[in-house]
5-hydroxyisourate hydrolase
Amino acid sequence: MNKSMSKSPITTHILDTSTGKPAANVAVKLFKLTNNEWVQLTQGKTDSDGRITDWLNTEVEFATYKLVFDLDSYYQNQPTPAFYPEAQITFRLQDTKHHHIPLLLSPFGYSTYRGS
């Protein structure tokens, strides 16, 4: 990865599809699978645009990673309580491209895709 990148090699974004707005202030943890154990690399909270872009300023290895989103705390401030207390997205880095992992969220479901 390019060390001069201004944003993290792994970024995320949460859009609350029930409101059509970004999900701000959601706690997210990033883990890496090392020797069959999940090791936490960093954590952060989404900004007012629902994004985390600056939480990891080091190169990343080709490996398996996991994002864990704390949905309970987000839904405490919403009219509908969370059905899923958290969302986990596990993915593999297999190339040197930037990896953007978005979460599309609603009170009763979520989905993801590889973003750009």
The chain has a mean pLDDT of 90. The radius of gyration is 14 Å. The first helix runs from residue 71 to 75. Helices lie at 71-75.
